[in-house]
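Record 1 of the preview.
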Amino acid sequence: MADQVGVLATGVPTPLNVVATGGPEQISLTWNAPLPNTVTYTYNIVRIDSNGNRTTAATGISGTTYTDPVVGLVTYTYE
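->
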């Protein structure tokens, strides 16, 4: 499985150092908050599969991690 992460931040600063780590039936995304980190930003996580199908995996994520429960040997790209 290839880890591919694309960052598309709309209306908020782009998160920094985004990393995707694949595991058994999950993909963990981590990132650093943009500076100044005195403001809490929320993010929506969009998953795109290898067929181009877009799915909103999560909305309103205010932290700097997200674990996506996925099934199968599919390559995903995240925005």
